[in-house]
Amino acid sequence: MISYLINLMFDNILLSLIIVCTFLYYYTTSTYDTWRKLNVPYAKPVPIFGNIFKMFTGLEHQVDAFGRIYQQFPNEKFCGFYQMSTPFLMIRDPELINTMIIKDFSYFTDHGIDMNPSVNVMARSLFFATGQKWKIMRQKLSPGFTSGKLKGTHEQIRECSDQLTNCIHDKSKETDGIEVYELVGNLATDVIGTCAFGMKLDTINNDNSSFRQNVKKVFKPSGKVIFLQILGVLFPKIIKILKLQTSPVDVNAINFFHSVFREVIEYRTKNDVVRNDLTQTLMKARQDLVISSDYKGEEKYCELDIIANAMLLFTAGSETVTATASFCFYELALHKDIQDRLRAEIISSKIKYGGQLNNEFLEDLHYADMVLDGN
């Protein structure tokens, strides 16, 4: 009798596994004829994973995975591939890409990242916004990035750079090695803080700055988030229905920046402080879209939309600069000939423009542009 029950239980488990596997197979392969029907050249997918098995299992970086697919079709303007069951179109032709991001950009505004604003405040920022709401917000924030306003930041950047130079000089007396990533991260945090938000953070001289620590936390991944991201790739509808958090955003960090930027905006409003910076652009957007707006429904804006964009511009701006500069310094350390040539250009240009950090000086650094671009 016991043996019969064990066999019956085993059969039921086996049957359940077969049913689940069969469901997964048909669920994930039901779209695999999409590109064939549309006569689009595509990478041959495998059941369940599509074309991202190695990426999914951590055997291949995302950049390498997409690069591999890109290289399979050297003579095609575009190609198709599958991320699990979802068909994606990869554009390869430079002229077509140029048309899409300039002439026809109004049709390609979304980044394809579906985030719920009620779950994650960052979903309200420009990078994650979609459709008409994205278009309106972009129009309001664009004035904050004019060439005139960027030129006006040179003196503030110079002050931060001088602080960095002094910091390196002091640290070199204490140690033979300096953590470049942390040092550049502190510089980027100070530069964005003072240029964009009028805040003197002094992160360069304070490694434990709350700003720098919270910037690191904002997009720090966790096991739970990775699991939910995998679940989101397999079953995106479930994630949407349950309103699960799939992006690695630390709640405490979000609350920190939310409080800081709200205080900055409130202080300037109360004391009638006007500066030609990004915060002023955000405050103008707040006046137009939140206080004096008649937008309704999905296009209606609130205070969180303004705060979210302040948080995005601060955190994303500092981390992208930090990563780019750190990799650049690493490569320069490996190639001293390039390092020497770059130093020579900077020194000669500095003499040419009387030691001034201005727009003409920066535009004359042609070799520096090539180094940063990886050319």
UniProtKB/TrEMBL annotation:
Its main location: endoplasmic reticulum. This is Cytochrome P450. GO terms for molecular function: heme binding; iron ion binding; monooxygenase activity; oxidoreductase activity, acting on paired donors, with incorporation or reduction of molecular oxygen. Belongs to the cytochrome P450 family. Keywords: Endoplasmic reticulum, Heme, Iron, Membrane, Metal-binding, Microsome, Monooxygenase, Oxidoreductase, Transmembrane, Transmembrane helix. One of its GO terms (cellular component) is endoplasmic reticulum membrane. InterPro entries: Cyt_P450, Cyt_P450_E_grp-II, Cyt_P450_sf, Insect_CytP450_Detox. The chain crosses the membrane at residues 6-27. Pfam families: p450. Its cofactor is heme. It is a peripheral membrane protein. It is found in: Endoplasmic reticulum membrane; Microsome membrane.
